[in-house]
Write a structure and sequence with these properties.
about 150 residues, about 55% helix, Rossmann-like_a/b/a_fold, UspA, 5 helices, 4-stranded parallel sheet, Universal stress protein A-like protein isoform C
């Protein structure tokens, strides 16, 4: 990929799901980054596979998996629609939104690479202040090492 020019907008990538923490993180990012025109918003929702959501394979699995998959697709569509509505309510209309099937850790790392994100925002999922600090610190170190070793 070509080097970024100074006129390109920096990407703020937000991992979203249907949790209260995710909504808070999205609102926080919209309030802190999007009064400025230098940022571009990308929303990523990681959708589990039907087999990982059900967690079994055996008699009856073939009948239930399409139903579970359909429900997961509906949930993903609702999550994106809710997030886009929050963006619209805060006058952020240039939004890229994507649903990717897979483990959220891998999906978010891949999305950071794909969109060359400058900032990744995720909700806390109820971690206390110390655990949250350690998690953010480790995430930054791992991300920095990933790009250093390339």
């Amino acid at each position: 990929m070509a080097a970024s020019s100074s006129s390109e907008k920096q990407v703020v990538l937000i991992g979203i799901d249907d949790s209260e923490q995710s909504t808070y993180a999205l609102n926080w990012a919209l309030d802190h980054f999007f009064p400025s025109p230098i940022f571009k918003l990308v929303l990523i929702h990681s959708r589990p596979t039907a087999t990982s959501a059900v967690g079994f394979a055996g008699p009856g699995a073939a009948e239930i998996l399409p139903i579970v998959d359909s429900d997961l697709r509906k949930i993903a569509a609702r999550v994106l629609e809710t997030a886009k509505q929050l963006c619209f309510n805060k006058s952020v209309n240039d939004v890229t939104a994507e649903v990717v099937e897979g483990d959220p850790r891998n999906v978010l790392c891949d999305a950071v690479d794909k969109y060359r994100a400058a900032i990744l925002v995720v909700g806390s999922h109820g971690y206390g202040a110390i655990k949250r600090y350690i998690f953010v610190l480790l995430s930054v170190i791992i991300h920095a090492l990933h790009f250093t070793l390339q």
